[in-house]
# Entry
Amino acid sequence: MDILYTVSGFAVGAIVGLTGVGGGSLMTPLLVLLFGVHPATAVGTDLLYAALTKSGGTVAHGRKGHIDWAITGRLALGSIPAAAVTIWVLAQLPKGSNAIGAIISTGLGFALLLTATAILFGRRLRDYAAAHDDSRLRQCCLGKITVVVGAVLGVLVTVSSVGAGALGVAALYFLYPKLSPVKIVGSDVAHAVPLTLVAGLGHWMLGGVDWALLSSLLLGSLPGIWLGTHVSAKVPEHVLRRLLASMLILIGGKLIVA
# Structure
């Protein structure tokens, strides 16, 4: 089983390297639906997996000046407290009941559908935001809106482990259409690290982290990400993103119905 986890980590890592998205949105449902891992354990393990894998990306982006730390700070100002409150709410649910698993499975399904929408329509959202960049709401309340968006991401990521990637990037493109794409991605990756770390440690305190599973996933995903990154220039990105979005819609629908 450990070998299968490692192979799965390699496959997901390669997809992340090819498309830039798909980590939590593929890893968590893969663990739940294919391997039968309890939803809470799958989410908690994937959160720490994301924190570890994205730390290297944050260092690389930071050295190149690709992170807008002011935006990252605003997002974290909303997301970190929201993650902590969400963990507290989950801790209040009856131990041994199916309530946590049901909440996480449903939240994961909706998060996957939102992620698929962000992948399919991200460019249109970006173009719309650029055309309305001078709106009064954006000019007067952009900082506060960013904090609120961070809080929404904090809840969503803590419940499902999905949203820190594609949804975070889509939100930043919408809020800051004049910011360069590389700074959008860098700022989102930098924000994802403390968010997934806090949420992952919270799930660990609730008993929702499998360390052996985490090690197996990392063993496969790190070379997978490296390979995918090097092959990405030779594969049509728009085709991969559409296939990924279609897959997420199918998986998200199955989780919600189930």
In short: The two ends are 25 Å apart (CA to CA).
